[in-house]
Amino acid sequence: MGGERRIWPHHADHVVTTRATGEQLVTWHRAARMNTMKPQLGLFLARAADFYAAHLERLRKRAKAAQDKAERETREGKP
Fold first, then answer.
1. Which of 51, 52, 57, 27 is nearest to 39 (CA)?
2. pTM of the model
3. Domain ranges of the chain
């Protein structure tokens, strides 16, 4: 264990345990292998979570912009 290579940032200090079905695990490993020749499932899941969180933030900002636009048009009397 002493020769393990770290795949997470040096400032990472949280450990997450994930439960998965066998089918999910196979799918995640397959996707991690598509991403790199030496798949690291934990790194893949962390990147996937970061990507999804950024996606949700973009959706939230778009919804807020659409709401603001609708409110502005209502105030200005546009149909």
1. 27
2. 0.69
3. 22-75
